[in-house]
């Protein structure tokens, strides 16, 4: 039979691990060199990792040349835009039409004003029936969350001979307070 002590000291194999081996001190180097020495690997040139200085200089010169070319191109584009806008501004002064060309004939102007007036009348005649219809469709009752049970409201209606749902919104608020008072009075009478 299992003793209580041995049962308490058993460990689940999933949770058994060796803590000192899992901790790694990152401040300590993996290969220890004596003070003042360094790794000789850095003294040698490794062609697979580094490029010759002539090739690096050539790439740098190419990059500088590309940058200068783009800069010159952007300067040329801005100069071209400025010339173009200046040209349009100079020519637009002479392209303005005289006032007589822009004016409409008097008969055409009168015709346009009459059409605008007719359009306004037509729109007004259309909107009036719509307003009436919308007014008819507006809700006369609004939803109010129930304050009292339907039975109590019906009893209050019988006692006061008033219809709760026929009241306006403000009257309903007053009626709710009246129903609460009426309900308390009924409880007191029963006790």
* Inertia-based shape: flat
What level of helicity do the residues show?
Answer: 55-70%
Helix and strand sequence: HHHHHHH
What's the number of extended β-strand segments?
0
**What fraction strand?**
under 5%
Instruction: Specify Rg, calculated over alpha carbons.
Output: 48 Å
Straight-line distance between termini:
69 Å
Mean pLDDT: 78
Per DSSP, the total helix count is 7
Poorly predicted tracts of residues: none
Characterize the main sheet: none
Structural class: mainly alpha
Note down, in words, how this protein is organized.
With 191 residues, the chain is mostly helical. Among the domains are: 47-90; 150-190, no CATH class. It has helices spanning 4-9, 19-22, 53-94, 99-102, 106-137, 150-160, 169-190. It is flat and about 110 Å long.
Outline of the structure:
This protein is mainly alpha-helical. The protein has helices at 4-9, 19-22, 53-94, 99-102, 106-137, 150-160, 169-190. The longest helix has 42 residues, at 53-94.
Task: Write the topology of this structure.
Layout (H helix, E strand, L loop, with lengths): L3 H6 L9 H4 L30 H42 L4 H4 L3 H32 L12 H11 L8 H22 L1
List keywords for this structure.
single chain, 191 residues, mainly alpha, 7 helices
